[in-house]
Fold this protein.
Amino acid sequence: MITKTRALMVASLAIAASTAGAVDVRQMVIPESVGVAVEPAHQAHVLGEAIRDSQVKRTPTIWIVNEPSRTRALMPAEEARLDAIDAEAAEEARHVRATVLFGFDKISPLEWSALENTIADARRNGSVVKLVGHADDVGSDAYNQRLSENRAISVARYLIKHGVSKKNIKVSGRGKREPVSIVDSSMNRRVEIDVVKAAGGAL
């Protein structure tokens, strides 16, 4: 009896599968009354209610997650990274930078106006003024080294004349070793000024 029933079921399934537009009997039919969530990747393989014309009605699965915003404590690595950024910003705020340009083979700059924004900070107690002279690539290394140093000394004299303490000024020359442009050599004839303000804003 059981074998007979099984044979009838197999035959009926074969007939159903052979009809045009029939539902694939290998797939599970899930009625809408059953609350089953289907992953989007498998949505196409799940059949909804079979309607009269043997078409299959598929209902797209919509995933909605409602979660209130909340704060969380920073991880140690995040805390350290933010502290490093803050420290870097605080250190950069202590620097006032400027550049003065020079004519070819000259030790007096084309103009002094670039220094105007640095003098007030350079006068402060505890400030350090770093002057680094540079030259273009015309001439020997030794000649350009002396030229770059003389340019920095010229800027130092100007600052001293305007009230900056000599002991706060550090002068050096880099010759032609550190060009900023390989196209416009006039940009390389320069003195870079870096005023490092005293910590705490000492007057």
